[in-house]
Amino acid sequence: MQWASWSAFFHMGGYAFYVWFSFGLTALCVVWEVLALRKRSAQALRLAKLLAQD
Amino acid sequence: MNNAWLTVLKRDLLLALRRRSDVATTLFFFLIVSSLFPLGIGPEPAVLSSIAPGVLWVAALLAGMISLTRLFAADFEDGSLEQMLLAPQPLTLLVTAKVFAHWLVCGLPVVLLAPLIGLQYALPGDALLVLVWALLLGTPALSLIGAIGAALTLGVRGSGLLVALLVLPLYIPVLIFGAGAVAASQNGMSAQAHLSLLAACSLLALVLAPMATAAALKVSVE
Amino acid sequence: MNNAWLTVLKRDLLLALRRRSDVATTLFFFLIVSSLFPLGIGPEPAVLSSIAPGVLWVAALLAGMISLTRLFAADFEDGSLEQMLLAPQPLTLLVTAKVFAHWLVCGLPVVLLAPLIGLQYALPGDALLVLVWALLLGTPALSLIGAIGAALTLGVRGSGLLVALLVLPLYIPVLIFGAGAVAASQNGMSAQAHLSLLAACSLLALVLAPMATAAALKVSVE
Amino acid sequence: MLLAAQGLACLRGDRLLFKSVSFELMAGGLLYVLGENGSGKSSLLRLLCGLLMPEVGEVHWCGKSIKQDPETYLSNLLYLGHLNGLKDDLTALENLQMSARLADSLVDEQKMLSALTSIGIARCANLPVRVLSQGQKRRVALARLWLTESKLWILDEPFAALDAASIEVLASRLNQHMSDGGMTIITTHQDVEISAQSTQTVRLSA
Amino acid sequence: MLLAAQGLACLRGDRLLFKSVSFELMAGGLLYVLGENGSGKSSLLRLLCGLLMPEVGEVHWCGKSIKQDPETYLSNLLYLGHLNGLKDDLTALENLQMSARLADSLVDEQKMLSALTSIGIARCANLPVRVLSQGQKRRVALARLWLTESKLWILDEPFAALDAASIEVLASRLNQHMSDGGMTIITTHQDVEISAQSTQTVRLSA
Amino acid sequence: MSIHWFKYSSPQTFYPLAGKMIPWFAWLATIFLVAGLYISFAIAPTDFQQGEAYRIIFVHVPAAWMSMVIYIVMAAWAALGLALNARLSAMMAQALAPTGAIFTLLALVTGSLWGKPMWGAWWVWDARLTSELILLFLYLGFIALQSSIDDPRRADRAGALLALVGVVNVPIIYFSVKWWNTLHQGSSINMGAAPKMAMTMLTGMLLMALAFWMYTIAVALMRVRCIMLERERSSDWVKALSVGVKS
Ligand code: HEM
Ligand SMILES: Nc1ncnc2c1ncn2[C@@H]1O[C@H](COP(=O)(O)OP(=O)(O)OP(=O)(O)O)[C@@H](O)[C@H]1O
Ligand SMILES: Nc1ncnc2c1ncn2[C@@H]1O[C@H](COP(=O)(O)OP(=O)(O)OP(=O)(O)O)[C@@H](O)[C@H]1O
Ligand SMILES: [Mg+2]
Ligand SMILES: [Mg+2]
């Protein structure tokens, strides 16, 4: 294990902003993409249902 | 605010929403054009930062101008411009609504994207701030002046280039004050004077351009 | 040379002759864009001559691209493109005729005008010569690649900017080699390698682009 | 209420299309503009709208030149030219709404739907106009006739590209307009029965 | 010589316009494509030309699929759509010349002038098409019918925007084409008498 | 409407199949991700030159790899769709593009975030950086073209042509940018400055890359399902599917 403590881990040797921003942004993109796709799929199904009722 | 003014504004925003890619392409055009220069000129950061104000403003000018070429063209081709001319409303009013919608959709995003590109040209922080202010004050003038060109060249073939020819010379003051503002702040001077001049340009354009545009539209539709 | 090839070539040249202003405007666009930079950047001759290759090539790229946006659009709108697709001739052939006409009318004048603008940027004599050669070898590639973009975006609204988005990234090699050739000769090196690469780009484009363009036209006319 | 044209002449390029065209159109009146292809029918209609400037002559609305008081005139005018004036990316309903608002007339969705129903394209109400066929687009444009309160209608070949059923519907709408005291100026190459309190004809010769 | 369509279906956007349209057209035959606005007439015609790809089905010319041997088919085909295919900046004569050359048929100026005379616009022969009226433009486009040697004509609403005299001229040209052993496929909303050795009708329903 | 809309593979059968495959790939992605993150933060030692900042490599490099690989895969699907007139292939190409663009953007941003502490600049016009930026433009062009054409069939074919032209151009662009950068003044920063990668780092990067791969497949399948639903909304099988949905 590299890290003396959790705070050292979060501090990242002074590069916290750069490292956590990189990983955070990646995580954000992944989560956003998945959520957006779920919403899109639900919307498509809802529209299809409306069309089916016509 | 007048009812017809809002209608036209809403209509144009709705159309832009239906064609979101149109909006995106103005932005990308700005982005791509400003990324072309380093490829032609070379990667030296010192050189790039010294030419940045000029290059960014020219890219903004071109993006604005090119997106303006079609400001009235679609309405002209499908006959809705005729209908607008026959509306019992002052045409100048409707013209300002169209130009405002265009600025919201094409001008504002460019203003917001500009600092990001400024970073690639190694511009310092305060110059970036001035860049945003200058664009915010100057782009309305670009839209308003561009509208005159777009109206004059309606229905003329090859109008894309013709607009450029008519409009770019009129853009020159905006370019000079705009690039001057950024350059001043890069050199540690105050950009105040340049910014005031930019605002004056926009105001003057707001007073005169819609009338000229309306007159040009009437001629083009004959 | 095939009869239909000559017909299309002749037709497009005749049309350009009837609309001489179109040709003139490409030239003026090139001229104006390349004159904007000194205004935005400042009159320092040393700076100007160092950025000249890049700026001139970017201006050529933009002028070519903008004039290309309408390469097929007029034919599409008035239905003569349909008729061309229904001609008992290979479409690739007709496409090359159109592109060649466009190059004669828009590319060649830019090539011939470029040294004049180079002078304004304080380029030395041999760099000017290299500039002309580079443009002569590179502009055909620009026309050919641009034709693909023009064909793909036919009938799509806001196509002017969309073409820019599609085509400018593909132009980058030509820009790099073209500006590189001039810069090399400015720095006292041989421009030979760059020029050969430019010629290679144009040849490759000549082989591949007409096919892609023809396919794109068929898709667009559906 | 009266539309009067006095000695109109129209020059296009270097050709004099027509000269000294005069007429008076009263409430309930119908004016046919007839003539061969290229005789200047469309030009005359655009001139009556004020889109084109006459070379000689004037157009008066209720005694006043339409150049003097355009707003009153325009708020009484509905013009439909060769072009439909529809935005391809808006639906039929949205298009109708926009044009009603521009003309300052307030109409609700119910009314617009019934207008579309009258001309038989209610099915297309929420489709973007882009995907409609020639005749369907024309019908969306014509649906404005069911929503307007304008007195004077100027219609340039309204029957072109319409199928037989739609022509009949349109003709009966025109009849109704005239019997309500409206006026219509129309060009057409097709033979369609329209009844009006008074029918005039202007014949242009090429 | 035979045009055969087998089980054609056409999908536009997500709507199936028509399916299993089949017919055979022999020399001297006339095929009417009828239907309301938006029923897919124009789409069917474009599909027969090969401009549009059918979703299902094939079109055969003299026994061969038109995708297999497009050149033979195209050199026997003349198509006139909603659009006239004229360049605004060229004169009527120049336009005719270009389209004849593209179709690889050699025609001299005399012949073109007489074609323009037949359809009654010889007067406009040397005017740029830009300044012509709707109907005049259409007539320039139709003048190609007097110059072509193609066997198969596909005409989309050729009578629209024409005045009565021109309609008659065009109808008699069609009669002559059919009696010379040609074939014609036509859509129209107008009632025009055309005589042919055999007349068929395809009716599309929306 | 019993005509065959799809000649080679029907969405009707692929839709449920894709639905079954998605969880598998999602699980694989999670497993690889956990392993990769463990190595990148717990096992990999501190770099003596770059300090902890180098840990960005564990997202940056896999993202950069993916950005390039996805473009090639996308073009291959597009070519297949064009050649065989198979719509499923075209849909796959369309489904991959946004994910590819996101990875390109991530490579750019994480690279910038790395560059600032290492080089002192957010951006330099280095060959590799520049070609990555151009790759982003190529993705955006593809997406913009497809989204501005309404007829799906036309959009598919136009997009496929563009992707093919792009794939011919990518190597040309790559080399031209490389030569551009080395023929004149040498770039002031040497990208090779990173130390020889230890085995652990390589393993970490590979695991993260695998995680991204699996994620890409899962997401592309999700998106292709959406596209199918949207395109076939009036077909019977979609209507049947939608009955169970609460609105
Ligand atoms: C915006 C900035 C950056 C971009 C767009 C970028 C782009 C790329 C690309 C496309 C690759 C994959 C290349 C390949 O595998 O052939 C890559 C790999 C790599 N990058 Fe970056 N990069 C950026 C900044 C940086 C910085 C600042 C560093 C370190 C100081 C860096 C270090 C690396 C390393 C070590 C690799 C792996 C090299 C290899 O596997 O061969 N990058 N980058
Ligand atoms: N912009 C223009 N410039 C010059 N001449 C024009 C212009 N527009 C029309 N013309 C000429 O005016 C004449 C009349 O045109 P107009 O469109 O009014 O005819 P029309 O009677 O409506 O014919 P159609 O029945 O074919 O629609 C035409 O012969 C045409 O040559
Ligand atoms: N590009 C397109 N995308 C989607 N749908 C289209 C497209 N073009 C036409 N359509 C649809 O196809 C249908 C048929 O169009 P088409 O033009 O073939 O009709 P038509 O029978 O010629 O009608 P008209 O008599 O009005 O000319 C229309 O309802 C229209 O909605
Ligand atoms: Mg007319
Ligand atoms: Mg039709």
UniProtKB/TrEMBL annotation, chain A:
Lineage of the species this protein comes from: unclassified sequences, metagenomes, ecological metagenomes
Subcellular localization, as worded in the UniProt entry: Cell inner membrane
NCBIfam families: cytochro_ccmD (TIGR03141)
Protein's UniProt name: Cytochrome c-type biogenesis protein CcmD
Pfam families, sorted: CcmD
Membrane topology: Single-pass membrane protein
InterPro entries noted in UniProt: Haem_export_protD_CcmD, Heme_exporter_D
Cellular component GO terms held in the UniProt record: plasma membrane
Transmembrane segments: 15-37
Keyword Transmembrane on entry: yes
Alphabetical keyword list: Cell inner membrane, Cell membrane, Cytochrome c-type biogenesis, Membrane, Transmembrane, Transmembrane helix, Transport
GO biological process, one term: heme transport
Keyword check for Transmembrane helix: yes
Automatic annotation (TrEMBL), chains B, C:
GO CC terms in record: plasma membrane
GO molecular function: heme transmembrane transporter activity
Keyword list, A-Z: Cell inner membrane, Cell membrane, Cytochrome c-type biogenesis, Membrane, Transmembrane, Transmembrane helix, Transport
Residues annotated as transmembrane: 21-41, 47-72, 93-118, 130-154, 161-183, 195-217
UniProt-annotated location(s): Cell inner membrane
InterPro entries found in the cross-reference section: Cyt_c_biogenesis_CcmB (IPR003544), Cyt_c_CcmB_bac (IPR026031)
A Pfam family recorded for this sequence: CcmB
Membrane topology: Multi-pass membrane protein
GO biological process: cytochrome c biosynthetic process; cytochrome complex assembly
Role, per record: Required for the export of heme to the periplasm for the biogenesis of c-type cytochromes.
Annotated family: Belongs to the CcmB/CycW/HelB family.
NCBIfam families linked: ccmB (TIGR01190)
PANTHER family: CYTOCHROME C BIOGENESIS B-RELATED (PTHR30070:SF1), HEME EXPORTER PROTEIN B (PTHR30070)
Descriptive protein name: Heme exporter protein B
Source species: mine drainage metagenome
TrEMBL record, chains D, E:
Gene Ontology terms, MF aspect: ATP binding; ATP hydrolysis activity; transmembrane transporter activity
Gene encoding the protein: ccmA_5
Organism: mine drainage metagenome
Family annotation (Pfam families): ABC_tran
EC number: 3.6.3.41
Biological processes annotated in GO: cytochrome complex assembly
Broad class of enzyme this protein falls into: hydrolase
Alphabetically ordered keywords of this record: ATP-binding, Cytochrome c-type biogenesis, Hydrolase, Membrane, Nucleotide-binding, Translocase, Transport
Protein name, as recorded: Cytochrome c biogenesis ATP-binding export protein CcmA
SUPFAM superfamilies per the UniProt record, alphabetical: P-loop containing nucleoside triphosphate hydrolases
Residue ranges occupied by any ABC transporter domain in the UniProt entry: 3-204
PANTHER family reported for this sequence: ABC TRANSPORTER I FAMILY MEMBER 1
Entry-linked InterPro entries: AAA+_ATPase, ABC_transporter-like_ATP-bd, ABC_transporter-like_CS, ABC_transptr_haem_export_CcmA, P-loop_NTPase
Cytoplasm keyword on record: no
From TrEMBL, chain F:
UniProt KW keywords: Cytochrome c-type biogenesis, Membrane, Transmembrane, Transmembrane helix
Entry's Gene Ontology molecular function annotations: heme binding; heme transmembrane transporter activity
This protein's GO CC annotations: plasma membrane
Membrane topology summary: Multi-pass membrane protein
Pfam families in the record: Cytochrom_C_asm
Record bears the keyword Transit peptide: no
UniProt KW Oxidoreductase keyword: no
GO annotation terms (biological process): cytochrome complex assembly
Bilayer-crossing regions: 21-43, 63-84, 96-115, 127-146, 158-177, 197-221
Stretches assigned to the Cytochrome c assembly protein domain: 14-184
Subcellular location, record wording: Membrane
Classification via NCBIfam families: ccmC (TIGR01191)
Family recorded in the similarity comment: Belongs to the CcmC/CycZ/HelC family.
PANTHER family associated with the record: CYTOCHROME B_B6 PROTEIN-RELATED, HEME EXPORTER PROTEIN C
Name the UniProt record assigns to this protein: Heme exporter protein C
Lineage of the species this protein comes from: unclassified sequences, metagenomes, ecological metagenomes
